[in-house]
Amino acid sequence: MLRIAVVGAGYWGPNLIRNFSASPDWDLRAVVDLDVARAERAVAAVPGVRVTSSLTELLDAGDVDAVAIATPAHTHEALVTQALEAGVHVVVEKPLAHDPAAGRRMVRLATERGRVLMTDHTYCYTPAVRKLRELVQTGQLGDILFVDSVRINLGLVQPDVDVFWDLAPHDLSILDFILPGGLEPTGVAAHGADPLRAGKACVGYLSMPLATGGMVNVHVNWLSPTKIRQMVVAGTRRTVVWDDLNPQQRLSVYDRGVDLVQQAEDAEDRRAAMISYRLGDMWAPALPEVEPLRQMVAEFAASIREGRPSVTGGDSGLRVLRVLDAARESLAQGGALVPFAAETPAMVVA
After folding, report:
1. Distance, CA of 126 to CA of 243 (rounded, Å)
2. pLDDT value at residue 344
3. Distances in Å between the alpha carbon of 265 and those of 66, 248, 259, 260, 261?
4. What is the pLDDT of residue 265?
5. Axis-axis angle for helices 314-332, 163-178 (nearest 10)
6. Which pLDDT score, from 0 to 100, does residue 350 have?
7. What backbone phi and psi angles, to 5 degrees, belong to 83?
8. Percentage of the residues of the chain whose pLDDT score is greater than 90
């Protein structure tokens, strides 16, 4: 069994503690938190787990092979760097860091030290999203025409981040997971509103054109009285609707769409081309019931033992982080489309 410590016993930490302690791959050795009493409460049901307020002390003792970091984003770089320099593997909560420069430094250090740096993009380990990835990447949907994602509810206005940084990482990580080559739009445009005068965007819309000609739209909102978690992925062959709040039918695959009956090449003929509507069947794939975090901790162990990057590695976290940063820049420019270039190895090394 691999030995691990969880750093942070706040909102997400107890979920990691529960899953690592129940996994046959892991031996949960310690929980680190500045609030020792909170950490002790988090491990009350897990005997034999050490509690400490000092990550330095834990790493110096050499008692762990890996750490799972569940602390605020602005603390990630320092904690991840400390762990990697001590020679341990790291899984870190999203977003990967507070800005892309910090994310690049973390990814570079993990590569230099030969250690796994994994981002806990939990939704990517749900059966529904894994099936959605299969449908996209095996070509069953055809070429992607558009993706429309909605994540809205009456949520808590966060003190340190806007609605984009709070909610959009979920949708962006899913898009990065399901799209071939990851999330690499040609640009990012963000429009936000602050009707509460909270000093940050509480309602937001992200638009991202894709190099293939498709379009991605993401709507995030803290102010909606209704809760919606839905993503529509439309292709030239089929369309999938993912409804995360419908446990009986999370995925619906529609063989319906619009076909352009076109053989001529000139613009005038294309405008006059006939439109054909395809009205086929709908089916719902059967999905297993498994806990995503259990799958995530298993993947972390497998990537370490097999000496390979995780399916939601540091590069995935960096792509999501770069989109969030581009959204921040677009907001500052009044919603202008900010060019988005693919990350190259030279950019990470620089």
Report:
1. 12
2. 57
3. 58, 46, 16, 13, 12
4. 57
5. 130
6. 52
7. -70, -45
8. 86
